[in-house]
Structures are given as C-alpha cells and as structure tokens.
Design goal:
The protein is mainly alpha-helical. It is built from 10 helices and no strands. The chain has a single domain, classed as Glycerol uptake facilitator protein (Up-down Bundle).
C-alpha cells in the first residue's frame, strides 16, 4: 500500500467512525440517540485508534494536515510529501462523510433540526465567539501535535522509517484524542484537523440531504486556520526546546 492510499483509507476510517458516532448520538431515532458527549469523545478516540492501526505501517498515519505540516516544520517529515498527504486526507474525509450519510440516510430524513444534520458533518460552536473558538482549536491542536512530536522523538531509530502518529502504536494517540475531547472539546466540537471539518462540510454542501440548511461557511475557516496555527506553534516550540 502506498502512503497516498494509506492516508486516504486511514482518514476515511477516521471520519466513518468519528462522524458515525456523532450521527448515532444526535440524529433522531438511532439506537444511540442522546447518549451524550462521553460517547462521542470515546467514539472519536476509537476512530483514531482504528485509523492509525491501518495506516501507520504505510504512511505514519498522519490523517490530519496539521500533523503533516507540524512534522515537516519540525524536520521530521519531507515537505515535498506534504501536498500529497493533505490531498489524500481531504479525499478520505469526504469519502468517510459520504458513507456516514448513506448509512444514516433514514435518520437524516426524520431529523428536523438543520443544525443537527450539519453537525454530523462538521463543527458548530456551542457559543459563537470567533476569537475564543479559534483559540480553542489552536490550543487543542497544539496539544495534539506537540504530544505527537514527542511520541515520534522517542521512537526514531531508523532514519528510513516513516515517521508519524503510529510511531509508538495506536493506543497512546487514541487516548490523547479522547483526552483532548473530554477536556477541550465542549466549546467547538474539537475539529483539531482541517480535513476532518472542511472535507465533510463540502460533502454536506454536495449531498442530497433532505431539507438541509446552511453549510456554515462563515465559520468554516476556524477549524482550518486554528489547527494549522496550533500545529505550527507546537513544532516551533519543540524546535526551540531541542
């Protein structure tokens, strides 16, 4: 499997399982309806675990543009490969979102709330405050990438090995994402991944969802810019501390 295909498959699985748990909790009539935030954060942690297990041996399982950029800036990943990884991550995110919609199509059709329907695909802040929403995404992604950089630093033995999220195994990363969600995710929904939000948001715009509402483009830049800035800040701090 090539790194490009691995990133597509890994990110597809990430969104299928991550957005899938959101759909199961918030859409009307599902078995998991109204089961709460802990179920969502646990589901996302397990989604990361699944994605990393599959993709790590082939691509390092970045599954997140902010991680690819942060690793490259820290000198742990080739800048020339970043565009290919980011493209694969967006393709995977869009495929995963389409699958979530198809699986839950009947539940989308009986759910009246347009914001709830959109929230299966992408983030909507609990309270709209552009500065604090951006800061939250920045901090959440900073914690993610800064910790991941130390995962990789602890395990680099072969300079020819692919470096990425899978370097110490999938479980620590899953626990990391779970912890970020529990502690920092309640205000914005913790995208902490530009592909995770923008790819599914694009699919929300394209798919024939019954009585869907706005795509929320006015907010869409926050889950893109915030995570990228957080990844960059994490890499710069690690370099400063090295």
């Amino acid at each position: 499997m090539t790194p490009f295909i691995a990133e597509i498959i890994g990110t597809t699985l990430l969104i299928l399982m991550g957005n899938g748990v959101v759909a199961n909790v918030i859409l009307k009539g599902t078995k998991g309806n109204n089961s709460g935030w802990i179920v969502i954060t646990t589901g996302w942690g397990l989604a990361v675990y699944i994605a990393v297990v599959v993709a790590a041996p082939y691509s390092g399982a970045h599954i997140n543009p902010a991680v690819s950029i942060g690793l490259a800036l820290a000198g742990k990943f080739d800048w020339a490969a970043v565009p290919m990884y980011v493209l694969a991550q967006f393709i995977g995110a869009m495929l995963g979102a389409a699958m979530v919609w198809l699986i839950h199509k009947d539940h989308f059709e009986i759910t009246e709330d347009k914001v709830v329907k959109r929230s299966v695909f992408c983030n909507t802040p609990a309270i709209a405050n552009r500065f604090l929403n951006l800061f939250t995404e920045f901090v959440g992604t900073f914690v993610l990438v800064f910790t991941v950089l130390y995962f990789t630093s602890a395990s680099i033995e072969d300079t020819n090995a692919v470096v990425g999220l899978g370097s110490l195994g999938a479980l620590p990363v899953a626990l990391l994402v779970w912890g970020i969600g529990l502690s920092l995710g309640g205000t914005t929904g913790y995208a902490i991944n530009p592909a995770r939000d923008l790819g599914p948001r694009i699919m929300h715009a394209l798919l024939p969802i019954k009585e869907k509402g706005s795509n929320g483009w006015g907010y869409s830049w926050i889950p893109v810019i915030g995570p990228i800035l957080g990844g960059v800040a994490a890499a710069l701090l690690m370099l400063a501390l090295s």
